[in-house]
Structures are given as C-alpha cells and as structure tokens.
Amino acid sequence: MMALLVALATPSDVQVIARFEAAIEGDLAHDAADEDLLAASTRWTLGVETRLSVATLMHIEGTLRSAGRTPSPGEWRGLAPARGRAEATTELGEAWLSHRRGPLRLDVGQLIVRWGVMDLQSPNDVLNPMDFRDGPPRVGATEAPVRPIPMLRVSHVSDDLSLEVVWQPFYTPHWGNAADSDWAATRLDPSLAGALALTDLLVSPSASEALQPLLLTPNPPEAWPSNGSIAARIGTSGAGLDLNAQVSWAWDRTPTLRADPELTALLVAAREDDLPTLLRLYPRVAPRLANGGRAVEARHERTLTAGVDAAVALDTVVVKAEVAATPGRTLYEATLQPVRAPALSWAVGVDWLDDEALSATLELSGLTPLRDSEYLLFGRGWAQAASVAQWRPPQVEGIEVTLALQHALTARAWAASPTVAWSPPRASADALRHTLAAGLLLLDGEAGTLMGAFGHNDAAHLRYTLSL
Predict the structure, then answer these.
(1) Between the CA of residue 62 and those of 13, 89, 224, what are the distances in Å?
(2) What distance in Å separates the CA atoms of residue 93 and residue 96, rounded to the nearest whole number?
(3) Contacts for 126 with CB less than 8 Å, ≥ 6 apart
(4) How many of the other CB atoms lie within 10 Å of CB of 27?
(5) Residues in contact with 351: Cβ distance below 8 Å, sequence separation at least 6, in sequence order
(6) Cβ contact 43:67 at 8 Å
(7) Which residues of 426-453 are buried (b: 16+ CB within 10 A; e: fewer)?
(8) What residues does each domain of the chain span?
(9) Are the C-beta atoms of residues 19 and 466 closer than 8 Å to each other?
C-alpha cells in the first residue's frame, strides 16, 4: 500500500529513495572496562532523483540517525536504561547536480566518488572520508562506509578512454568517536583519554556525543579554497581488461597528535579534584598555558599519492590488483609518536562467480612503510588476507548465507563474521523490499593490532531493513 501511494503521488520523471533500518547489537562478554553491552540504532533515509532537463539530473537525500547504548542492559527506568547514552542526528547525504554534454559530464554537490577495483581493501579509494562511528569497516563489507562531501567532478568518457578530475574545495575529516565508545580512538591510544578529560567538566554526556568527531580533528585546515584538494584519474578498457592510473594532492586525514603529559595530568587532576597534583603541576605548566599550549597538539599534512589498478575478466573469474605510493603519510610508531614516512599500499584479489547460487572474493592486501621502524597497528609492515563467500540456496528463495573472514599474515590477529539474511519475494519491482539479517562479529589479536585493540567487541546483531 505504501509503495502504491508513493507511486500515485510521484511524477513519472521523479524517483523516490526511501530506506529504513533498525538494528540491535549485544556484546557477547563483559570483558573490558566501560564496555557497552547493548546497542540499538535506527536510520531513516529519504530522497528524490529527478531529471530537470534531457541533460541535467538532480539527486538529494537525507538521513535521520539515532543510536543508544548502555553498559547495563538489565537496569531500566521506563523506556530508558539507568546508565547509557543516546543521540539523534540529521545528516545531508548525497546531494548533487549532474549535467552531460556529449562525452563530457559535470557533477557538483555532495558526492561519493569511489576509485579502485578492489571490493574489500582498496588503496586507491581515498577521495571520501571514512565514517567510523560504528567502528572500522566490518569484515566482508564490500563498500567501506564513507561520508559524501562537497566536490566538483569533470569526466570525459569515450569508447576506450576515460578521464576524471575531482576538486574538493574544503578539508573534511574522517568521522568517528574520540572516547566514550567501544570503537573510540582512545582504545588505540589510552593516553588520549586524559587529554580529553576536560570535556567531562564542560558538558554532560548527552552533549559530548556531538563533540566526539570534532575531538579527533582539533586543528583542521581552514575552509579556504586554497586548502582544497585535487585528484585526477585516467583509464582504458577493452577485451576484458580495465587499466587505470591516478594521482592526488590532498590532506592526510590522519592527524599528527601529540599529547602533553603534564597538561594531560593536570586536566585529570582537575576532574578528580586532586589538589596536591594540581599544586605540584600548575607552576610548571602555567607558562605553556599562557602561551596557548594545549593538552593535545594536532596538525594535518599535505600528501602526494599516485596509484594504478587493473582488473581482467577470465570467464567466471576476475583478477584484480592495486598499488598506491606516497612519499610521506602520517603513521604512529609503537611509542605512539607520530612520524611522516614514505609508504606503499597494495592489494591483489580474485572474484569468482560460479552461478547465481555461489560467489566468493579473496583478497590479499597490505601496507609497507619504506622507513624502518615499529609502527602502531602495522608493525614493520602489514599484510592480511580477507575473503567473503555468499551462498543463496536455490531450494529456499530469499535466503543468503555470508561468511566473511580476515586474517593477518604478519601478526596474530583475525576476525570473522557469519551472517544469514532473508528477503521474502516481492510481488513486483515497485513493491517494498524487507530484509531480516542476523549474524556475529568475532575478532581477536595481539597487542598493537587493530583486532587486538577492539578484541573485546565480539557481538551478535539483528538487523531489519525496509527499502523502496
């Protein structure tokens, strides 16, 4: 009925985008301090796409996102947990105008532009910032969660050659939580927790949710056009082969963060009303405070990145490869000190599609710093294998079973995510699509790895999606 009403009220040249998602996630074990044992979220996305003329298309969508989590699922006061945090935000999604004239196309607005040929780990997919609010990209995610940002893209496509130029007028950081979350940056670097202690003194927990992403980028580049970023990509295709090369001059979205240990200790002492520590430290840090000193100093650097990628189709198999090189990117040594180091990112993989019932992807990827040191998360170099297999049993219509695995080759770290999803058959292409999915997230690793830092986040989830 809802689909019929939308169809009757919508002109033939307007496409309505509607999607609702509700999810609940429960931690499998209470094995870490300040851990959320239960989390729930909803997302409502509504948008339209319409043709303004034969050559011009407009698209706009927005999302209402709500999320709540609690460390004590057994204690409730009415409809709210006795302890916990909740937030609701409205966000502008993709919103753009696209104009074509022959082989030329101009796109302007809030865009998502994906480059590269890999499905799971793409070194060349770097234009849009990541959305880490729900953690790093989940095991088996074929599209990393990214944020649409202001861009201008000019592209030219002919029979065997394509060219794209993208300009981003403003710097836009990754989006995530600095603290107060199971996926917070302080799980990677606990020393940042003390530096962020001042927020507890200034705002309540409900207000601090909105501050979290800003705390990860305390000193972003000013929003002047001169601080924009530019990238270009050229490609050719034919006889089952796609070959592309790209270059970008952009801001490194990983900041160099340096925490002042004495200023950090002073903030912690103020929060905990530790008068002896305050009296001992204040005379030493007062001159730095007078000169504008901060508990955390942050800086972003420009970085030049060049990359190539290729994909070749061989019957039911597609072989893919990517490599990206930069003379300097921000990394953190094992001592938590930021450094700028040349590095090489790479990935090779294969997609296999036997028939409509079974498909699989296997990828090897890694990061090789070209300056010898021991780095946080990457050691002296990082390599991993990731795979996703999907099975759709023909005997049961609408069922899809997915098994995603990720295993480090240079350290003891792994992650796994089995999922079962069911979508009942639709009466027509215009009917609403319902999907119910249940699954697990399991991960573990040694200290200094991403899986090790978030190894306490093993969870079971249930997700319902309604889309038009």
Answers:
(1) 20, 11, 26
(2) 10
(3) 115, 248, 250, 305, 324
(4) 22
(5) 119, 317, 318, 320, 359, 360, 361
(6) no
(7) eeeeeeeeebebebebbbbbeebbbbbb
(8) 2-260+295-467
(9) yes
What homologous superfamily is domain 2-260+295-467 in, according to CATH?
Porin (2.40.160.10)
Q: Estimate to the nearest angstrom the gap between the alpha carbon of 411 and the chain centroid.
A: 23
- Residues near 65 by beta carbon (within 8 Å), at least 6 away in sequence: 41, 42, 43, 44, 88, 89, 90, 91
CA–CA gap between residue 53 and residue 398 (Å, rounded):
38
Cβ contacts of 434-438, under 8 Å, gap ≥ 24: 434/464, 434/465, 434/466, 435/463, 435/464, 435/465, 435/466, 435/467, 436/462, 436/463, 436/464, 436/465, 437/461, 437/462, 437/463, 437/464, 437/465, 438/462, 438/463
Residue with tokens 């003891």: 412
C-alpha torsion 254→122→387→67, nearest 10: 50
Give the count of alpha carbons within 13 A of 231, CB side only.
27
Q: What's the CA gap between 306 and 233, in Å, rounded?
A: 10
Q: Which amino acid is at 332?
A: Y
Residue matched to tokens 């049993």: 393
**Are the C-beta atoms of 320 and 308 separated by less than 8 Å?**
no
Separation CA 35–CA 457 (nearest Å): 8
CA distance 220 to 217: 6
Per-residue pLDDT of the chain (468 residues; tens, 9 = 90+): 444 334 444 555 789 999 999 999 999 887 777 788 888 999 999 999 999 999 999 999 999 999 888 876 665 555 556 567 788 889 999 999 999 999 999 999 999 999 999 988 899 999 999 988 887 777 667 677 899 999 999 999 988 899 999 999 999 988 887 777 788 777 776 656 655 555 655 666 666 666 666 667 778 889 888 899 999 999 998 888 999 999 999 999 988 877 666 666 666 676 667 778 777 777 777 776 667 666 667 788 999 999 999 999 988 899 999 999 999 999 988 877 889 999 999 999 999 987 778 999 999 999 999 999 998 888 899 999 999 999 999 888 889 999 999 999 999 999 999 999 999 988 777 788 999 999 999 999 988 788 888 888 899 999 999 998
Rounded distance between C-alpha atoms, residue 112 and residue 125, angstroms: 10
